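Progress against Task 2.4 (sequence-to-structure conversion) is shown through the following example record, which the project officer requested during the mid-term review.
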Amino acid sequence: MPISILGINHKTAPVAIREKVAFSPTEISRALLDIKAKTGVEEVAIVSTCNRMEIIYRHLSHSNASETRLASNTGIVSEVSNNENSPFEAKKVNKEAINDPNLDMETEILLWLADFHKLNHQEFGEHCYTQHEAEAVDHLMQVSCGLDSMILGEPQILGQVKDAFGYAKNAGTLGLYLNRLFQQTFSVAKQVRTDTQIGESAVSVAYAAVTLAKRIFADFSEINALFIGAGETIELAARHLKRQGVVNINVANRTVERAQILASEFGGQAHSLTSLAELVEKADIIISSTASPVPIIGKGLMEKVIIARKHRAVFMVDLAVPRDIESQVGKINDVYLYTVDDMQGVIKKNQKQRENAAKEAVTIIKHHSKKYLTWLQSLSAVSLLKDYTQQCEQLKNSESERSLAKLESLGLQLSKSEQDHLQKIVSELGNRLTQKMMHSPRISIRKAGENNDIKTLEILTDAFCSEQKK
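Structure tokens generated for the chain above:
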């Protein structure tokens, strides 16, 4: 029961390519039903974020329908792409490996993806990668733990994978195999978050700023925060502080309308930069990131502010280049000023901590992956046992009926009770022989299943069920 992944991410394609194959939340349910109807997948889920699009699927057999279509598929390139943050590898779709049994389904899905988004597959095919079986299981767990993210260990991806699970569940495109895989994946992600420090160290300038602020303020609920600017970095910093319990938020920006959009998201107030002096005086935390060519907060202003505040501490973070806050401000007592370079120092140290945590996470992932694959293989053993038993029962019944027919052809004059007794003898003989002959093979099948011995199971399948397969 092959489990595979076909995807594209920030390491294999630029955003201009990724956005072409992304699925909006309103499209995913329709896409799931469409891919199931038009390809040979039995189960399927789609993870679609700004940094990746991955189709996780299970299929029983490979379609031959794509073989002729593959001949003209010149946009698929052979290559192996190393992930920067983990030891796992994602293999790009390989045009040369045409005899690979997995390739047919890969091509079917690739062409379906192109058709769904009204694209030529050559536009994005060379950026796609695939994973199969154990690699696919490892990859999904790796992704969910944040080991394959642009920011190592970022937690948002787990929620996005859970969303993908929810969409597939509601669409009815999950079955026993993928349902169990996702549940196992959520368990490993929870354990990685609990047992390692993968997400505890700041590795973005916005998060690093909040981490430093926690060294000064024990309680954020009464803190006044001022954000100067309204770009992505300021938005991330505001989001992090909001999660820490900051309630009083002000946003100052050259364009008040842009400040209003950001402020409304966090329940804050929007202001023009003309109100900066008044806002700075009331602020306990100031985080600034504008495109101003000159500083907008000087030493003179902050000296007046500290006096007006009666020397209550002010935590300031200047994330702008060039600077928004004059460097001399950091020399004022009760002002704690940090620049983007200070943040980079924190990030570099914490990145190393996350990398060490990632190594621990890999060990956890391997354990859970093996656990899932063992369960998966146990289903193969159960299926083989069922098929083998059924085949032996059919053979026993066939031969018993054949023996009884030969006895009847002898023309023996037997009473009804004698005939019944003879049938019972033949039936018991068939049952005893069948049970004795099945005993050793059954033990071998069970043992191979328990040991996750795929090779032995394949040999046993060929040996015991070859006639049935024909």
